[in-house]
Write a structure and sequence with these properties.
11 helices; disordered N terminus; three-stranded antiparallel beta sheet; seven-stranded mixed beta sheet; BirA Bifunctional Protein, domain 2; alpha+beta
Length: about 300
């Protein structure tokens, strides 16, 4: 198998994953089916993340991969990442409108105008449905939530590490600034320990989000300067362009203000999250250790209970 060691272009790794049957093609870039072996690896990674966070005793929440459009608008996502958003549209017309649509389809026309936007938006990150639930006054200790969901981002690519539909397992902390920042700092060593247990050669560094437009460049600089986003990255597609597999984010009071989340003392709550890309972690394992899980290092197999 040619991916063991060295540098490979993203297309080569993409093709080898498909040839091995780990990912299944759908005809769309960045959208794949998953094999039993790939899903089993995801499940084991997910359990390992849960184990690493168990000491904090988080609340567990699970949501479908859609969010309320009104909450989505309040989150500010469209101001920063309109190019990544995915909205949900549905037919709501009459019988004559349906006939006109079918005539349009028959002539090869664009029928999408018959599908107006619904009050639903695809989830861009697993944490987004959590913040509306936290609206109101937090207990004195704040709140900590374990959440996992499929997510969507419109960035079609043949780089297997940049899927359009993927899963994120996140832990979300809300409370006063000191509690929240201390919690995020405590996760840095834990996250690095997790990647080490998986035998991954990872690097931790300051990062920024892909903000939209010219104004986004300034936002990215500010994010880096304030060390609001840290990423743990590994080689997936190539060694020249490492891929983030874990992200540790401090949102300051952004979501507290947007969703009226307050501390027990009445101040605007701050939030932070640590997010694990489940598909990316699985891809990193296959990239690093090969496609035959029986040949993975004993320490990795033990960590995943293989």
């Amino acid at each position: 198998m040619s991916i063991a060691g060295g540098t490979i272009p993203s297309r080569a790794f993409h093709d080898e994953l498909l040839d091995a049957g780990l990912l299944l093609p759908t005809g769309l870039p960045g959208v794949y089916g998953r094999s039993a072996g790939f899903e089993d690896t995801i499940d084991r990674i997910d359990r390992l993340i849960t184990a690493y966070g168990a000491v904090d005793r988080p609340e567990v929440m699970r949501f479908p991969p859609i969010v309320n459009r009104a909450d989505f608008e309040r989150s500010g996502y469209l101001q920063s990442f309109p190019h990544l958003a995915g909205t949900i549209h549905s037919f709501a017309g009459s019988e004559p409108a349906h006939r006109r649509m079918m005539d349009t389809i028959a002539t090869g026309g664009d029928w999408s105008a018959a599908f107006p936007a619904t009050p639903l938006v695809l989830t861009p990150a697993a944490c987004y449905p959590v913040y509306p639930v936290l609206t109101g006054s937090l207990p004195r200790s704040g709140r900590l939530v374990d959440v996992m969901s499929y997510c969507f981002r419109h960035e079609p690519s043949e780089d297997p590490g940049r899927m359009q539909m993927f899963r994120m397992h996140e832990h979300v902390r809300a409370g006063d600034p000191e509690t929240v920042t201390a919690w995020r700092e405590s996760w840095i060593a834990r996250a690095e320990s997790l990647t080490a247990a998986l035998g991954l050669q990872a690097h931790t560094g300051v990062a920024s989000d892909p903000f939209f437009g010219r104004g986004g460049k300034l936002l990215a600089v500010n994010q880096r300067d304030q060390r609001l986003k840290l990423e743990i990255s590994v080689c997936i597609a190539s060694e020249q362009q490492p891929t983030a597999i874990i992200s540790l984010n401090y949102h300051q009071n952004h979501f507290g203000e947007a969703f009226a989340i307050t501390t027990a003392e009445g101040g605007i709550a701050h939030t932070a999250c640590v997010g694990f890309g489940l598909e990316r972690l699985a891809l990193a394992l296959f990239r690093r250790h090969g496609f035959d899980r029986q040949k993975w290092p004993d320490t990795v197999r033990k960590a995943l209970e293989l």
